[in-house]
């Protein structure tokens, strides 16, 4: 290797490390300035830097795969509508369109061009989940996207530094918490500004005119590194299928994965058709989580950007639940989309020699609590809407037990009890591990949790539920047992449905038991010391 080549590689690595620091600062700015608890406390966001062609170069570790990988595609839609040469300093673009963003109306994506010497040199993009966008509210009950809230096509949040006041007025007039919604949009713009400022400082320090030259190297290196990892695997085609609860009838997720010299093809032909309710998934979100399933076990140390993502190609038939056409209802698209990594991992079990985890609870347990005047008939108390996130257990892993109460694959944090109780008139009477919920095996599945919710004033309140794994448990692998199904019910009362809005009567308490992960390997081979430790920790 020539000395000049070595120096170039070192400089590129330093620049790469700097870009990672820039996008992480971008993400942390979003978390610190956001109004919604889903962002501040749970980290339901994404942040990244893109070249002027709209290709993602680097992403923040803070955030969710569904946001990150879908956002990687969405910036291209922004540039189709507003080519980079038409933009000017002070412009900020946004949309929450599910088919051009990250899959449902609650996610807003904001894109900001960066200029140096009057020339665009990069783009920053960020996405966050806004708790309320009007309509029926966050939940699966809608029949069309028109019922699910305000849909803003790709347009300007700021033009030449001036805010789009008409857009903001429309937003405020259509949501239940206008202060939080508007504040979150400004926080998205602020985080991109923070990234832009840091990037310009970096370019000055490195004596660079822009990022496009480095972008080619970064993307090409990531592509080649990912292909090198793929070529180590046996070539061929493998299939897997999962049956999950769905809204009112089971959903079949059928996956066909092909490994070849030029990448990995993932196809969901045979999957259930579009559902009449709001659990349908736009293709970008399907691609985001299916590719993440691959990246978890293949080339997981290769940077996640346009280069590495480009060699994992994901398709689904239009009209299936994983490629739902407009105007299908999509609000709770995560209930299906977050199951896809487990489906993909099932395909990879054989080519990786069984070196994959068992199925986990996978889908977030994210109840939306509503109450007060206008929500509960006869109530005169102040209205409230709060969206909290909780998790079940992950599947048993090669050589390790599954993780307890951990949100895989979404990666969001559970909402702290104190935050929920401070933002709504709710009391969480119980939050504890659900012993024995993880499937037995040489490596057990992670356990879920039990939570009990009541109104602070013993009033009735509503809950919008988007829970799966109530009828179809996470399956074990390699002889491991299935995890326990989830449950949701009124204490001393009836069982509740996993999907849809229901009212908890005055004085009643809703109990949520999240699913445990499947076990991995024969339970007879489990180390007795692990069993003893589980009993001591109250997990058995």
Describe the structure.
The protein has 2 domains: 3-223, Beta-Lactamase, CATH 3.30.450; 357-540, no CATH class. The longest helix is centred in the N-terminal third of the chain and has 31 residues, at 3-33. The model has no long low-confidence stretch (mean pLDDT 94). α3 (65-81) packs across α7 (283-297), α4 crosses α5 and α7 crosses α10. By secondary structure, it is of the alpha+beta class. The strands form 4 sheets. Strands 2-1-5-4-3-6-7 form a 7-stranded antiparallel sheet, sandwiched between helices. The protein has helices at 3-33, 37-40, 65-81, 165-174, 178-206, 212-230, 283-297, 306-309, 334-337, 340-348, 417-423, 528-537; strands at 45-50, 56-59, 92-95, 107-116, 119-129, 155-159, 162-163, 236-244, 251-260, 263-267, 312-315, 368-371, 384-387, 426-433, 449-455, 461-466, 487-490, 499-504, 509-513.
Taking strands numbered 1, 2, ... along the chain, how are they ordered across the largest sheet? 2-1-5-4-3-6-7
Q: Taking Cα atoms only, what radius of gyration do you get, to the nearest Å?
A: 23 Å
Beta content comes to 15-25%
| Broad CATH class of the largest domain | Alpha Beta
CATH architecture of the largest domain: 2-Layer Sandwich
Largest β sheet strand count, sense and barrel closure: 7 strands, antiparallel
- Which residues sit in consecutive blocks of at least 5 with pLDDT less than 50? none
Which range best describes the helical content: under 10%, 10-25%, 25-40%, 40-55%, 55-70% or over 70%?
A: 25-40%
- Report how far apart the termini are: 57 Å
| Tally of separate domains | 2
Mean pLDDT: 94
Computed structural class: alpha+beta
Shape: globular
Number of strands: 19
Task: Enumerate how many helices there are, as a single number.
Answer: 12
So what's the oligomer here? Answer: single chain
Enter the CATH topology name of the largest domain.
Answer: Beta-Lactamase
